[in-house]
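Page 42, continued from yesterday. The earlier attempt failed because a stray header line got pasted into the input along with the sequence. Redoing it now with the clean sequence only.
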Amino acid sequence: MKYIIIVMLLPLVFSCEDFLEKEKLGEETFDVYYNSEEKAIHSVTAAYSDVKDYRFGWTLWAFGETLSDNAVYSGSDGDNAGFELLKNFNGTPDMHYVTNKWRLCYRGINKASQAIEGISKMDDNLFSSVEVKHRLIAEARFLRAFFHYELVRAFGRIPIVDHWVQSVNEKIGQSEIGEVYGFIIDELEIAAIDLPLKSEYSTDNLGRVTKGTAHAYLAKANMYMENWGAARDWALEVIESEEYGLDPDFGHVFSFDGEHGIESVFEISFHDSETESSAFSNNGNFQTLFMLPRNITYGYGINQPTQDLFEAFEAEGDVVRRDATLLTTEEVFEIELADFYVALEAAEESGDAEAIAAAEAALEEEKNKLTFNRTGFYNEKMYVSPENRSSQIRNNGNNIRLMRYAEVLLIYAEACAHTNAEGEAREKLNWVRDRAGLEDVTASGQDLLESIYTERRLELAGENDRYHDLVRLERADKLPGWSESRKYWPVPQAEIDVTTGEIEQNEGYTGSN
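This time it went through. Structure tokens are written below.
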């Protein structure tokens, strides 16, 4: 048996004005803390808070996009070189990238578990209704499942933690991948019973998980396990709920106005906080800073889409999604240097040769500030234009979309294609294609599945799923340096060391230190 000691901090307690706005109130012991509905809400909000941690958000695209053919880990030469080992699938167990994913997810799991146990012991009379009590437990249960889901996709075999861990000496054995997904599915099914519909939440609670969120992740977890009948049925629950729909304007989905819109099943909510702007304590979307063009803005210029992704859009004639996903260098210039273009246009209208030359020189000087542009493309889904940009570099207010209705339709289509329901598969696939202005697919058999796989790549590009799809479809061997033995990341060395050798490293990394 392989074991690991899970070392986690007890959760802080947070207040919330706008759901996830964080303010440390202090610490109380478990035995006395759970004495009001307000504190129960705070404890669940604390479990949500780890999805906002910039290190967690970083791992979403570092694993999901830059390991794949969709993007490169660009940025400065130091940024690029620091990630190169992981990009080439030669990462080591002592890299902080790896450690952050593991520890943040288990910290979130432990907070969720504490909330479940604490709220479960509370008297029903402490709540405005027993439904509120059950809902809060269900939210925490979903979050516990979600963090396990993030871990199993990254590390493969992991410890299942189904209770609040209170001692650093507790040992929990790693489970096989199928067992982990089985636990996730069980947790989600239980949570779904007491979660409300999206339409039943007030505006200030948008961002909390809903029944539709649980059903969508049930569909996706079963997809990973190739339980196609269950994946189909859970996706159909979302479709038939009539709580969601496709936004007619694909680009609008990723705008500020499109947040928590008709297509949103689950997203991480951020806002521009004037009082919190540090790396580890803020309510803004730090990921925007990583992806904004380098030096021409204050961004780091990391996670740049590839020419390969651009050509995939071109092959399908997919102009709508291409233009809403990929921001070209010239488009960056037009947005960021708008004033310089206006000055040049005015000079040209004046006909003054010296003024024209000066305006051209000024524009060129500004363009040259853009550095480490390795691909010529930026992720428009995460781009924030200057007029909407926060004055605090880490605090942009744009949300991260984790699950959209379009993906639910594609999960349903893929499951139907595997369960002799090709008509249904084509219908839902074509709903997504119609929104993109593409012709209907009429294919069947493997050609239909290939169309669905292509659609997933183009629809979800930049949304952190591409690498995981390549692995589950057994197509990751197209990636330079990839090997079957290293499709998962190594277990952090610190976790192995603390068990004094009682746990073995993931097979592909044995002896890598």
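Notes: The beta strands are 3-5, 71-72, 158-159, 171-175, 264-268, 304-305, 326-328, 377-379, 400-404.
Reminder to self: strip header lines before submitting.
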